[in-house]
Design goal:
With 107 residues, the chain is an all-alpha fold. 82% of the residues lie in helices and 0% in strands. The protein contains 4 helices and no strands. Helix 1 packs across helix 2, helix 1 packs across helix 4 and helix 3 packs across helix 4. The protein starts with a helix and ends with a helix.
């Protein structure tokens, strides 16, 4: 039975590593997305960092990406930036690819 126990522990450890990596990629994607939006709103570097953190925090409001999209569209519109839901979703997809690339390079 030890072979099966060892195999089970290995699968559990692999699952935990993959879940942690997925979480980190997701958080990095949101940070990059916040920096993208901050650039469009012409924020200072300090304000940009704070805004990126706020975008990461906004993702914890509800499951899925709707809370982040809603925050970004609302903030960009309030700042007078002509943008829409489709542009934010495209940026979200682009930043997901970049976040994955950055995490792979960091390993």
């Amino acid at each position: 039975m030890t072979t099966f126990d060892d195999r089970e522990r290995a699968f559990e450890a692999k699952f935990a590593r993959e879940e942690e990596m997925a979480f980190r990629v997701h958080a990095r994607r949101n940070r990059l997305l916040g920096l993208w939006a901050a650039e469009k709103m012409k924020l200072t570097p300090e304000e940009s960092e704070a805004y990126a953190k706020a975008v990461v925090q906004a993702d914890f409001e509800e499951a899925g990406d709707e809370d982040v999209v809603r925050k970004l569209v609302g903030d960009l519109t309030a700042a007078g930036v002509d943008t829409g839901d489709a542009e934010v979703r495209k940026a979200l997809d682009d930043m997901a690819v970049e976040a994955r690339r950055q995490m792979i390079e960091a390993q």
